[in-house]
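Thread amino acids onto this structure.
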């Protein structure tokens, strides 16, 4: 998955693709309920890919049920309209929205959506 989002070296996160993945959840509440129950049952335990998927499933559920807009806060940091923000900005937005408060999970998300293999 890292190769899918890798464009060139740097410490930027391609947030537009992250938002698109989250937006896929809208309109399918049964999938959201299933994902949430799986997250609760597993306790967040698993390999990195499974944990990232669980975090994304939780974010999808939270965005759908609480009607949270993710893109506008991320766009506030994107002054050049390049659809890229720094890792710290990405984590700050997720934390401010109450979506990801765990540093380890935030790091996993950054690794998945980073433009390079260096998540910093």
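Threaded sequence (120 positions):
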């Amino acid at each position: 998955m890292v190769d899918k989002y890798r464009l060139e070296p740097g410490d930027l996160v391609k947030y537009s693709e992250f938002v698109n993945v989250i937006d896929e959840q809208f309109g399918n509440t049964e999938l959201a309920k299933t994902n949430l129950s799986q997250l609760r049952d597993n306790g967040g335990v698993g390999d990195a890919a499974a944990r990232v998927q669980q975090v994304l499933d939780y974010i999808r559920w939270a965005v759908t049920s609480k009607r949270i807009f993710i893109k506008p806060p991320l766009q506030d940091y994107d002054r050049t309209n390049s659809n890229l923000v720094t890792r710290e900005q990405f984590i700050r937005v997720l934390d401010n929205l109450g979506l990801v408060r765990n540093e380890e999970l935030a790091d996993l998300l950054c690794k998945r959506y980073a433009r390079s293999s260096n998540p910093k």
